[in-house]
């Protein structure tokens, strides 16, 4: 699968975790919310309907699997899956673990307070945990 240049804001605000069959999986740099981002490796795509039908199915499959994984990992009360693109036009899907006690509950996570970046140890631990969980999902992706 070809590599696609990422919007600089996605690069600046998140860390790479893994390459899934369709998407690059990234971790949002905000410890307040366990937050994954899926970015399809398709050039010039800004809307889900810009993908062909097979890629659309794969995108939602990957989003569902990442949501299931994140919920099991975090014990979240709710998983939010969103595709906005008002600020970053490049197609990307957010998968966010939410808890009733989190800083933004019950509202959206966007624009709520200041992000709390991962320190290097927290980042390494979270990435290791995500990669371990992904290892068990390989056959389902």
UniProtKB/TrEMBL annotation:
Origin superkingdom: Bacteria
Gene3D superfamilies registered for this protein in UniProt: HIT-like
Membrane-spanning segments: none
Annotated SUPFAM superfamilies: HIT-like (SSF54197)
InterPro entries to which the protein is assigned, alphabetical: HIT-like, HIT-like_sf, HIT_Hint
Residues in coiled coil: none
Domain HIT: 36-105
Name the UniProt record assigns to this protein: HIT family protein
